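With this grant's support, we have settled on a layout for protein records. An illustrative entry appears below exactly as we store it:
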Amino acid sequence: MPIRQHRDWELKESQVTPERVYQNRRSLLKTMGVGGLMAGAVPLLAACEDNTLIVYEKDPSAPLYPVKRNTRYQLDRPETPEKLATTYNNFYEFGSHKNVWRVSQVLPLRPWEVKIDGLVEQPITIGIDELLKKMPLEERLYRFRCVEAWSMAVPWSGFALKALVDLAKPLGSAKYLQMETFHNPTVATGQKQGWYPWPYREGLTLAEATNELAFIATGLYGKPIPKQNGAPLRLAVPWKYGFKSVKSIARFTFTEKQPLTFWEKVNSAEYGFWANVNPKVSHRRWSQATERVLGKAGRVPTQIFNGYGEYVADLYKGMEGERLYS
């Protein structure tokens, strides 16, 4: 029987994109609007083992990274491996499963406009790349604690949320900053689930938004932030549970009234506005005393404010009557 040796450049049969996936790629790209991306934003195609087509889009902001690390913020644990941090995600716009890193690749990132409105001197709408030019980018090492009692430690790139607040020039009557994700059910099929109050909405007090820890992440691991992690803009507030860190932000609204947030509207008994990490206050269905660190065996104790009390505890003095932890 003749024996055929594979050359180095040849693909194994199992690696070949199935014909039906290849034939459907043009209609899929048209549906996603990839044809309207900026010049040079060439999509790269790949097929997963389950024949799901993934589109890896070249991000025009890639030359901005890596950025200089701010050494003020240090970790008490090793960084989470990049593969884990980018494949174990929640992104309800694309489903409630942990496999959203695959299906979320259909989200088009250009054009992407950010609206800044509400109680500001002058409402503006600005493109993501223009906004990035105006912001002082840096890298910060932060711990991240999910309300589901798992955690990670990652290097975010981006800018202090205070820089965006300063750009917006809020009026003296503004007390809160409301943030909303994109709304595009054609692409984000999870947004077709009518029992959820889309678009995803979160909020902070202005005191929280201008605290030095409040951060808008635009990159991760020295590269543009992946879609499943909240591209092109996501909030990172490391002293709060992860559901506060709204992803793929398209709108910042300054308001006098406390926003009714997405999960608060879905189930206010379990997910409140403040959502500060507290190991002594259990979720209604599980303990928050310990957490599972991605990539490590066993569990570790959870810290009050996720270990960031020295930066944020003063924000909540005199608020004992508020439900600060949920």
Summary: The chain has one domain: 66-316. The longest helix spans residues 25-32. Residues 1-52 have pLDDT under 50 and may be disordered. The first strand starts at residue 43 and ends at 47.
